[in-house]
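Page 47, continued from p. 46.
Same chain as before, 505 aa.
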Amino acid sequence: MLMHTLLLDGANRTPDKPCFFWVDRGRGLTYAEAAAAMDRMAGALHELGVRKGDRVTIFAHNGLDYLVAMLGCWRIGAIAGLVNVKFVDELDYYFADHEPSVVIYTHDMVDAVRRAAAGVSSVKALVCMDGPQDGAHGLPELMAAGLPAPADPSDETAIAHLSYTSGTTGKPKGACLAHEPTVRACRCIAERLRITGDDISFGPSALSSSYQLVGNLLPQLSRGASINVMGRWTAETGYDAIEVRQATMLIANPPILQDLLVQGTLRGRKPGRLRLGLSGGGPVPPQLKAAFQQTLGIPLVESYGQSELGGFVALGFPEIGPRDQETRRVGPPLPDKEVRILGRDGNELPVGAVGEIALRGGFMVGYWQRPEKTAETLRDGWLWTGDLGSMDAEGQVTMRGRRSELIEVGAQDWYPRDVEEALCTDPDIAGAAVVGVPDPALGSRPVAFVETAAAVDADALKRMIAGTVSYDLAPLEIVAIAEMPMTPTGKIAKAELTARARAGL
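Result:
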């Protein structure tokens, strides 16, 4: 099945039902209006010379035009290449990597777009979402022209979505997601989360993230639910918007979910009809899951996925039992994927053993123009995630961390997540990140950065967590910082912290 067919099905079944709503501007589209806008976008792109397999870069803030541009690409068999606006300084890299035919952008990004477009010969046209600019078409005028859409290529095996990795282990790579396996995965996600046509989903994270594609867009479209996007989240305005929109699902990353918890604690209630929070983009501390259930009275469902999947490795259920609150397990794999814990030799490890998480049954076609990287990740029919984890006797997956983040301290392997979550049980610590730096005696010396406004007693903190981790904490150095550096995708910038630790030592 094709990604955009999910919208067409909704338009046929419930044409007048709200489909998309842009919270920041108070504008929305019904299913019928969204389908019509998709066709107009497809006609405009075709008029500009976009054909099947061409790449269209979308470089913009969250909004209705962003959603319609994605759908218009899929409708004509083009590939939507999404670049987070926070990567404005690296735009040259992304353009050179996927060589777009057309670039759709917001007016405030015009200088960066012009510079990057001048460096590649592939760009046929620039399109500004906010109206014509010098050297750029205006999207409103193109849409108003009602240009006819070409015939749908209807190739469900074609690449539809170029999903860039976060670049934590090198330059970001474009994971090529095809229509059919992605739709199949998202239907399974909808079943796991028990999404119905009565649900109203709310996604304040960047639409450039593949997490929004598989968390806040395709599963909801598959069930005829309503979808909200928001570009400028704050704890107060976000909470109010969730309540006003009567959202039943919040699709976000851990920092936003923490914001909601704080607001719910201050106000003494959850917002309106909200029935669950879905977390993605990073592991969820058990204490956050427990606090969500105990304070707001709703489950915080954890997802574990990657840009390479077009889906999730594992996903929890929309109800959290006491054991799930106390452990770090995410949930079981979804029905579309087979997940195993494999050793370095490729053999499956026993229940509870830690190894690399691998899967088969639906994932990317490969990395865009990266055959050597594709061969490293896709081997013998498996996608090797690069993540270390385990599976228990109930088939529940626990992710321990990236293999690349493992720290070898003397003769012992340290999983940073163990220490980070233990440190965060201190009420004065808002966040923690553990990195390793070279040490002539130990091989690597662990350094824990803790975000706190309070004075830090490193020895007291180590005594506090000694009984909850299995490591000799003597070599651990603890450094207090006012605020964690973050990547544009909302993750702690461990590369920057590693550089700080190296400089400090």
